[in-house]
Design brief:
This protein is an alpha/beta fold. Helices cover about 40% and strands about 20% of the residues. The structure holds calcium ion.
């Protein structure tokens, strides 16, 4: 999952960058409203964290312009504590949720994960598709009740596919959302990782959880158990 952090306080920005990367996100950062608007318009993002008090262009203005440009990814705003007007204005501008400063990183992470789940049409942190269950909080996988060990990148691919179970996800999208810009982008790597994922999830070749659509990408093919989907 690729997240944009727009925050002018260097310490906070660096903390968020480090901790989000540790939590498995690909992280882009911007230091002011202009940079944030550019990144929000140009990068293939899954979610954004936007501080409201930003130089050059306010966070509210960034959100308004992104929404006016039909950018629909979820946005979490950072607000000053005890400023309810900020929260209301932020939500009215098109943000989806807020966290008041100072915050515990765990709260930001939980809210981001919830926004991503809801954007994918899931109501709960457990993504269940038939015999395959992915827990987005613990980052664990079970197949037919037995734990399956995945590498970080295998997990990220599976999470991306299962969050959007039923949708076709192109190789380009997977590559862009899973790797930093400076990482070598090679779609063969994705093919190899998906091949390994298939063998780990489905060693008997019976479930066929991940479908390949020639020239279009991949689709997580097992139906969702989630009643809300
Ligand atoms: Ca600020």
């Amino acid at each position: 999952m690729r997240v944009l952090v727009v925050e002018d306080e260097a310490t906070l920005r660096d903390t968020l960058r480090t901790r989000l990367a540790d939590a498995g996100f690909t992280v882009d950062v911007a230091r002011d409203g202009n940079e944030g608007l550019f990144a929000g318009q140009e990068y293939p993002l899954d979610v954004a964290i936007i501080d409201l008090g930003l130089p050059i262009l306010s966070g509210l203005e960034v959100i308004r312009r992104l929404r006016a440009a039909h950018k629909t990814f979820p946005i979490l705003i950072l607000t000053a504590r005890d400023n309810w007007q900020d929260k209301v204005e932020g939500l009215q501008a098109g943000a989806d949720d807020y966290v008041a400063k100072p915050f515990h990183f765990e709260e930001v992470l939980a809210r981001l994960q919830a926004l991503l789940r809801r954007a994918g049409g899931w109501a709960t942190p457990q993504l269940k598709c038939g015999p395959i269950v992915l827990d987005t909080r613990a980052q664990t996988i079970q197949v037919q009740g037995a734990p399956v060990e995945l590498t970080t990148f295998e997990y990220r691919i599976l999470e991306h596919l299962m969050l959007r179970a039923g949708d076709v996800i192109s190789k380009t999208e997977l590559t862009e959302r899973l790797y930093d810009q400076d990482f070598e982008r090679d779609s063969n790597v994705i093919e190899v990782l998906v091949g390994r994922l298939r063998r780990k999830l489905d060693p008997q070749d019976q479930l066929h959880p991940i479908e390949t659509l020639r020239g279009r990408g991949y689709r997580f093919a097992l139906p969702r158990d989630d009643a809300s989907s």
